[in-house]
């Protein structure tokens, strides 16, 4: 009898130990972080993009974790500085996929970096949200690739609509050598006829050029030019703007959303006065009407970012905010961090309000923004103002 009781007691002890071990193991599994991979141009010529993007990801990963994480798990940000270099981007994305084993990637400050890594994420079947602008990123649709910024084609269309309202039909184009510049130039040429716009001059400048006076002089001497559009990003547009004023071109100048930050105004100085461009509402957050449904999102982000980093907000950081919270939204919707389920949930995002606008994605649209998400801005008094 005693022997049987002892055996039963021993079995119960083993069962308790096994149960405890299972519970501990299960808790350890549940506690594993969700890994968010990123590669950004934090340094180099595109640092004005990557720096606010990385700061934004760091800030809001902390905020999400402080609120309990996602699905009961903490987020872990694993980020690399690709410095705008496509080869570095490929190296880091391979590392994110093969060594870090991330669950999703939010990054790619430039179009060149993004397109360089698309084959890698597609082959590895990892959800990837790009922060770059060119339409080629999502057209044609790639199964595992999404993006948050408005496209270059949308920028062309928004600008042409504004030109129509000002009775401009003959314009000049000037553009740089980068992937975004070339793509936007091509998109503007492609949709110009749709808006009854005739491109009567088409000039380009090279990487590292510090003076575009020659190209702009050709534009100035072209008969009939009513407005000029610079398709580009980085420091080139600021140089164009300065040279534009120096040689006395007196028709309106438009820039792309690729320079939608206060940094452009600082670089261009007084020459930026009167420049127009399409951008997200973030740059004029406090100027939005009280009943604008986007106002709470952009005002909150602006206050949190500027309070934390003591620097002015840019739309580029906003792209990273949107990318991160689209991932959070998708994981909550999927009830899982499983890559395939997250991809499917991203494709089903509907009515998500971000800093760029309302995202409505689908199997045929991996960006989900329309022209209403763009606001037309003008530099007045050294600041961005909303064109009424």
Question: How would you portray this structure in words?
Answer:
The strands form four sheets. The protein has a five-stranded parallel β-sheet with strand order 2-1-3-4-5, with helices on both faces. A four-stranded parallel β-sheet has the order 7-6-8-9. Strands 10-13-14 form a three-stranded antiparallel β-sheet. Helix content is 45%, strand content 17%. The protein has helices at residues 2-31, 47-66, 86-98, 111-124, 152-165, 179-191, 213-220, 236-246, 262-268, 295-309, 315-334, 339-347; strands spanning 34-40, 75-81, 104-107, 128-130, 145-147, 170-175, 198-204, 227-231, 253-255, 276-279, 350-353, 358-360, 375-380, 383-386. The chain is built from twelve helices and 14 strands. Helix 2 (47-66) links the parallel strand 1 and strand 2. The protein folds into three domains: 1-29; 32-150 and 292-369, 3-Layer(aba) Sandwich (Rossmann fold); 153-279, 3-Layer(aba) Sandwich (Rossmann fold), CATH 3.40.50. By secondary structure, it is α/β, with parallel strands linked by helices.
């Amino acid at each position: 009898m005693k022997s049987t009781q002892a055996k039963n007691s021993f079995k119960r002890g083993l069962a308790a130990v096994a149960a405890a071990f299972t519970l501990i193991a299960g808790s350890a599994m549940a506690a594993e972080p969700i890994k968010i991979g990123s590669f950004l141009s934090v340094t180099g010529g595109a640092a004005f993009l990557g720096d606010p993007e990385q700061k934004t990801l760091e800030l809001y990963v902390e905020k999400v974790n402080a609120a309990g994480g996602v699905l009961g798990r903490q987020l872990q940000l694993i980020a690399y500085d690709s410095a705008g270099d496509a080869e570095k981007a490929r190296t880091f994305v391979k590392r994110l996929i093969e060594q870090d084993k991330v669950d999703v990637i939010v990054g790619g400050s430039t179009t060149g970096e993004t397109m360089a890594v698309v084959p890698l994420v597609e082959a590895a079947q990892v959800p990837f949200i790009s922060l770059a602008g060119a339409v080629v990123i999502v057209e044609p649709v790639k199964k595992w690739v999404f993006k948050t910024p408005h496209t270059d084609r949308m920028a062309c269309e928004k600008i042409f609509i504004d030109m129509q309202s000002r009775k401009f039909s003959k314009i000049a184009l000037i553009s740089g050598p980068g992937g975004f510049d070339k793509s936007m130039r091509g998109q503007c040429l492609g949709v110009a006829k749709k808006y009854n716009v005739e491109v009567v001059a088409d000039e380009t400048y090279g990487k590292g050029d510090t003076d575009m006076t020659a190209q702009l002089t050709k534009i100035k001497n072209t008969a009939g030019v009513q407005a000029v559009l610079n398709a580009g990003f980085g420091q080139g547009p600021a140089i164009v703007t300065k040279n534009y004023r120096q040689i006395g071109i007196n028709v309106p100048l438009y820039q792309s959303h690729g320079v939608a930050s206060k940094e452009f105004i600082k670089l261009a100085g007084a020459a930026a006065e009167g420049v127009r461009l399409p951008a997200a509402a973030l740059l004029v957050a406090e100027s939005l009407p009280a009943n604008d449904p986007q106002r709470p999102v952009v005002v909150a982000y602006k206050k949190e970012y500027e309070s934390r980093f003591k620097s002015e907000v840019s739309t580029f950081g906003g792209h990273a905010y949107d990318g991160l919270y689209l991932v959070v939204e998708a994981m909550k919707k999927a009830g899982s961090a499983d890559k395939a389920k997250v991809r499917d949930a991203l494709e089903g995002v509907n009515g998500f309000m971000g800093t760029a606008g309302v995202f409505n994605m689908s199997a045929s649209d991996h960006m989900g923004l329309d022209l209403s998400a763009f606001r037309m801005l003008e530099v007045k008094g050294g600041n961005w103002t909303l064109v009424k």
